[in-house]
Write a structure and sequence with these properties.
Layout: E1 18-22, E2 25-29, H1 31-37, H2 39-44, E3 56-58, H3 64-76, H4 99-111, H5 115-129, H6 133-142, H7 146-159, H8 174-181, H9 189-201, H10 210-214, H11 224-227, H12 239-259
Parallel strand pairs: 1-3
Antiparallel strand pairs: 1-2
GO cellular component, one term: cytoplasm
Organism: Panagrellus redivivus (Microworm)
Pfam families: BACK, BTB
Amino acid sequence: MAADQYDHLFLCDKDSDVTLVIGDYEIPAHRFILSKRSEYFKAMFSSIFRDAGSEKIVLYETNLNAFKRVLDYIYTGKTFAQYNRWYSTRCEDTTSISFEQMFEILTCAQYYMVDEFIKCIVSILKNRGRDAPFSLLNNALAYSFDELILYATDLILEKVSDNLNERFFENLSPLAVKHLLTQRLDTLEPDIFKALVWWMRRNSVHSHAFPQLLELVELHLLDETQLDILFQPTPLIQRDSYKTLLTEQREPALKVQKSHQ
């Protein structure tokens, strides 16, 4: 039977043989349908699983709205380009769904092992990510999705030029800034430093991360005039911490220079 032929049973008490519980919300469901598209439920309803015969199954640590999307797909096979009963409008291009919401749905689909839906979501995120690679990277890192971290990183590295704009890191999370600083950015170190300082001045709430981020910049390659922007008009880091970091970078560099003399 085709997936869309189960559409009439979606959220329907008719022939329901199990109730899924998320918080205070109860969802009537059907074991044989859940088992068809979800390896998680297939295993759950096997005779060896503790809750195999339970009439009610509590789903812990599950985002309700994300699960509704996943369940919709399990019953209908419909994706975001098609009508979704949980929203009052049609989501033709998925742009009405934020990156964060998409990743919540992806995480839910992964947890419940709905493989075909996972492929669909990843494909959509890659398409959207072409126009918004920084947003894609922020969320891919936040949700630890390696395939999309790599994809977003490659897109961003393609945009790096010899003259890096000082706003390069503008909309990135601290985790994303750190990630990019560990990459081989094909540009000048002074430009990377300027872009980082620009970001730091506008993200003082993350000041605890500043020393770790500065460790990823080759400060010893910069002159004092360039480094002064760390302290003008106001200091972004303690002078002592700055001097320690600079010394730690200069000593290995000096040893390398001596070994080549």
